[in-house]
Amino acid sequence: MQDSVSRRHRGHFSRFQATIPALRDSVSERCQELFREQQQNIIQHTDWIFGRLMIVQWVAAVAIAWLVSPRTWEGTQSEIHPHIWAAVLLGGIITSLPVLFTFTQPGKALTRHTVAVGQMLMSALLIHLTGGRIETHFHVFGSLAILAFYRDWRVLVSATAVVYIDHLLRGYFWPESVYGVLSAPIWRSFEHAGWVIFEVSFLIVSIRKSLSEMMNVAERQAKLEALNANIERVVDERTAELRRENIERRQAEEQLQKSQARLAQAQQIAHVGSWEWDIAEDKVTWSDEIARLYGHKPEDMGATMAKCFERVHPDDAARAKAVMESAVRDLQPFECEHRVITPEGIERTLHGRGEVIVGENGKVLRMIGTAQDITAAKKAAEALRETDEKLRQSQKMEAVGRLAGGVAHDFNNLLTVVTGYCDILLRRLGETNSMREDALEIQRAAERAASLTRQLLAFSRKQVLQPRVLDLNETMENMGAMLRRLIGEDIELRACLDPKLGRIKADKGQIEQVILNLAVNARDAMPFGGKLTIETSNVFLDQRSVFRNRGLDPGEYVMMAISDTGVGMTEEVKAHLFEPFFSTKGLGKGTGLGLATCYGIVCQSEGDIRVYSEPGVGTTFKIYLPRLRDETGKASGPIVSNELPAGHESILVVEDDAALRRLATSVLRDCGYRIQEAANAIEALGMIGRDTVFDLVVTDVIMPQMSGKELYTEIMKRVKGTKVLFISGYTDDALAHHGVLEEGLSFLEKPFSPAQLAQTVRATLDGVVRAN
Questions:
Q1: What is the DSSP track for 620-661?
Q2: Confidence label for 587 from pLDDT (cuts 50, 70 and 90)
């Protein structure tokens, strides 16, 4: 066995030697990377310092110009030079560009060289403002010392060049602004340059030494990181080999066993704790990471296994004990996932691994193992699973919605033909004709079918939204029969409607959808039957009220309350009630979109929903919608007159459904219009030009190749001012923006009667925008 261990150790050593060159290269690259990061941080910090320092210097320059500027003397009298104000302005110009660069382009070479030039020019300005006083020249040396913070000797070269050029030129042409005398020899500039070079030489030496120290620090850090990475790799490799080494560890010396225990504790570096259970003495010892995970205190070290199990979650304790007992009985390694609760009440999920150590006589000696905190990973996996399920439900509902919308679209075309020809037939049959009642029955059936298609479109949210004046009482009465079938016979439906209820302005389909969704939720909350109550009333809010961060301003509202006697809701459920995909109905029983849709519809109608609920008592949803001020008008609705107004204008009918196109052209021709027809938008565009102008284009919205809205856009490009009437029962946002009909467009919803078609055409030609 010793030979086997020796060979394995030699193999580890060989692999380690093979990795030395790569490790050395990695350390060198990491060292350079750390050095560059540290150098860049120093440069950016120095940019930050100079960005503020230069502003302070300029303010100081202004103060010097105002208080301590050079003066001309005549006897005991003096006056400020006129050009001093120009110098103050020059200070602002010198300061602006470096400061701008330090804020917008920190860390760049251009920035620090610009700062160096600007700082030296500011020193020159201060020397000038004080008339070349020797004290001010020390500002140059201070500036060079601060510029050395950059750890870049090239910056000092730029600064030195600026100082020398400034002293040379101004010392020659304007010596009093540099040396404070009216004339000075050229060697004075060399003298100043010499002092500057003297300081810069020492600063460069200091910079080089600082950079060397920075490189040494980076090298030590890189070696430390490489060492840590190597330790983690060794720990991972060693953990994988623990199972294969189980038999060899039985015959190993006590020193080797202790070494293996220390190696297991080294897993703490990877945030994996280790523990050891002396089964004979029933004492458990652990690493610091285990102490943190379980909430053990130092005095707890050496506790019994039963004492340690007190930290295990009660729901997981029995299973974890059974796994460990099985491992001891079968002498097999084990894995166990369990929860722990610390004394502070923190709950963690741990993944534990362990092995049994057996002595030479076959007796179980101890158990060692590791525990890893997987709380975050579990939560992430659970969140991902829930998100996937919600996405699947959402995609399923979207597919069903598309199917429902598509079916409703085709069905509306058929219903328009049926109702249209039925209306024509009724006009031709006399009042006493025996077939008239049969035709009326067909018409009533078609109207019921049209109501079903509107519900399909409301479900799939593909209808064109048309806000109009509504009477909620009338809406509720029309939905009464459907609601009774929907909620079932075991639920009593009661309606308490205020006969003086005010009017609101909203989309009828949307309001019906809200009522349906709330009724379905109420039904699901009463699985054993109950009572569903719908109330309406006028309310006045005398002060602003806020619910779920949404406020209602004071004023008159129409309130509709839908109450059930179901299971009710907790405060936690109510807090998430209107969030998309939130549902308490269980997997596969709800999408979590119903109440979110209701909330959006009511808010879009400038209202709000308030919820009141208690567990075991029931729930009430109160919907507040603004009440219209004009109470005299009746609720608006589709055209109900049976009149067929006539006309003589030219009309182009564009409809891809042949039967519906024949119906529309037949009705309009009988009204006296000059009609041409096209089966699609491409064919219609071929008929529209400079020589052919139609008074009105009646077009379907959803057509192959090109939609009605696209056709409208092309018509406006060719013949501006042409009037267009859209017909459709399904929009898919081809005509409307987010489902709301765009202002200024005339629209006729399918299915429609010949009278509705003729009256809407007449209204559009007369300049009255209609949306029926």
A1: EEEEEEEPPS--SSPPP-S-----------EEEEE-S-HHHH
A2: very low
